[in-house]
Amino acid sequence: MTPPGKLFGVGMGPGDAGYVTLRAREVVLEASLVAHFAKKGRRGHARTIADEAIGTAGREMALVYPVTTEIAVADPGYGAAITAFYDEAAEAIARELAAGTDVAVLCEGDPFFYGSFMHLWRRLRGRFSVEVVPGVTGMSGCWSRAGVPITWGDDVLTVLPATLAKDDLVRRLGTTDAAVIMKLGRNLPKVRAALIEAGLIERAVFVERGTMHGEIVCPLAEKADDEAPYFAMVLVPGEGRRL
Fold first, then answer.
1. C-alpha 239: how far from its chain's center?
2. SS3 237
3. Where is the Tetrapyrrole methylase domain (predicted)?
4. What is the mean pLDDT of each run of 10 residues along the chain (243 residues)?
5. For residue 87, what is the domain's CATH number?
6. What is the DSSP letter of 239?
7. Do 177 and 155 contact (CB within 8 A), yes or no?
8. What's the rounded Cα separation, in Å, for the pair 81 and 64?
9. In terms of domains, do 47 and 128 share one?
10. pTM of the predicted structure, to 2 decimals
């Protein structure tokens, strides 16, 4: 009987192929099947990083989201579609693992930090052997390229999804020393308003496509429009103890 394969969640880093770890390269090159998440009609960002960093060849499996931004996350239709998608994707991978195939799932940033891989991991971890290969997060890539030390001394860092209500953003910004606000997109006007209300707009730094081609870094207060892609975030550096 063929022993089952192993599932790998592989962090591919924030975008620059030079930030892919040695372990990530090794796993992707040795895996029998490479899977990657993608929007319909497009290659996934993690797969694009692999192109530049590793040049993967062989068998691939595209895990194509049924919806992305077409439906609001709070809409019941979104949850139903995405849950069914993860169920089906997990079973497709389970069939490969059961047949003895090692499967590497490519992940933007780190697999366990707001990653789609976590939903596969939750469904498969009790059935198969799993290894998670950590990756450089998008936020660390952004603050490094922006030249913004994010925490000093005893600063407390809070990571906030921009999808929160404005009042929640204001409240949480008011109780932390430093912040990273992710998942900007169409939420940038709300985030800007929350930062103004919290008195932090002058410290806020906007980073678009950090470590990638077309990277933009600027003070948020100087950004004239409210346009932001998915790969954008706002950094609010701490002002703690400096020695």
1. 26
2. coil
3. 6-218
4. 94 95 95 93 87 80 83 72 95 98 97 96 97 97 97 98 97 98 95 98 97 96 94 96 89
5. 3.40.1010.10
6. -
7. yes
8. 12
9. yes
10. 0.92
